[in-house]
Amino acid sequence: MTAKHSTNYVLHASSNRFYWEGNGQLSIKTFSGGQARYKAKNGWFAVEEDRYLLLNEGPYTLEIDEHSALESFCLFFKNGFAGEILRSLTESTDVMLTDPFKERESLGFFEQTYPTTRRLSSQITAFKANLTTLAHDPLGYEEHFHRIMHTILFGQLDTLREVDTLPSIRRSTREELYRRVSTAHEYIRAYYHQPLQLKDIAQIACLSPNHLLRTYAQLYGTTPHQHISEYRIRKAKLLLDRLDYSITDISFDLGFGSPVSFSKIFRQHVGVSPLQYRKLVIMDKK
User: Boundaries of each HTH araC/xylS-type domain copy (predicted)?
Assistant: First the structure.
């Protein structure tokens, strides 16, 4: 075990173009001002401002390709830390008093992006705001890691409830199926702007196309195609707010075949054409 892996630490930085690959410990990744992309053992991930990525210990790559500075705030947890916190939440008081320093094996989480809850957001904001002062306050520094790990562990309960909605008698089978469908979902979130095909997404998830469709709809309440359309329309609204992007540029940047198909699909989802939407946004700003 390296010295770094035996320590909780924070990486707080700004970058517009960056690439890194190597081994990391259990961590959460948060960003503001843009998007970062990760490739890990279990898939591809895009991390935006309203979500965080939870990665287990192991190899991964990070790529940032932004025109403006992207702020990262990433927390790395020492080996056994999550297990230690979980033990304090699940063991009886008698057991904790008898053996308070018993080592626990490292926990394995579901690697994926998660919505940043209000509670976690406030904890991260407080940690970030006081980071300079905490450099000289090791006790306060460590307490932030404990609070944030508590929140992450409680958040996993929601994930386990999702796992239990999947059809299988064995818990291990449900968890494996969840991981595979989640891999497909994260890939869609990361590459919705590219021309994706069902067979390719299914292959990435190691599921048959039909099995993926059925389970994806059961888990997320929608189909992969519908999710891709939702992500494209959501991104299109943000780009239409920027006058330096033409309708044609937005069409091709988001994977639409042509401005005509973009306009048609946008109208179906929003009720107005992209050009009409842009005019309404401009009027609201005046």
Answer: 182-280
Tokens in use for 147? 């609070």
Lowest mean pLDDT among 85-99, 106-120, 240-254: 85-99
Report phi then psi at 270, rounded to 5.
Answer: -105, -30
215-244 tens-digit pLDDT? 999 999 999 999 999 999 999 999 999 888
Yes or no: domain 4-163 corresponds to CATH 2.60.120.280? yes
Mean pLDDT of all residues in 172-176: 94
Distances (CA, A) of 140 to 44, 130, 143, 175: 34, 10, 5, 36
For the chain, which residues make up each domain, given as ranges? 4-163, 227-285
Contacts 24+ apart (CB under 8 A), 212-215: 212/181, 212/184, 215/166, 215/177, 215/181
48: phi then psi, degrees, rounded to nearest 5:
-115, -175
Its pTM surpasses 0.85:
yes
Q: What's the rounded Cα separation, in Å, for the pair 34 and 13?
A: 13
Rounded Cα–Cα distance for residues 136 and 120 (Å): 24
pLDDT digits (tens, 9 = 90+) for 18-33: 899 999 999 999 999 8
Q: What is the share, in percent, of the chain residues with pLDDT greater than 70?
A: 92
Instruction: For residues 45 and 54, give the distance between their C-alpha atoms in angstroms, rounded to a whole number.
Output: 10
Question: Of 156, 155, 1, 157, which is closest to residue 78 (Cα–Cα)?
Answer: 1
In three-state secondary structure terms, 272 is coil
Which residues contact residue 204 at a Cβ distance below 8 angstroms, ignoring those fewer than 6 apart?
43, 183, 184, 187
User: Which pair of tokens denotes residue 176?
Assistant: 């494996």
DSSP 8-state code for residue 6: G
Count of beta carbons in the 10 Å neighbourhood of residue 191: 19
Q: What is the CATH number of domain 227-285?
A: 1.10.10.60
- DSSP β-bridge partners for residue 38: 45, 62
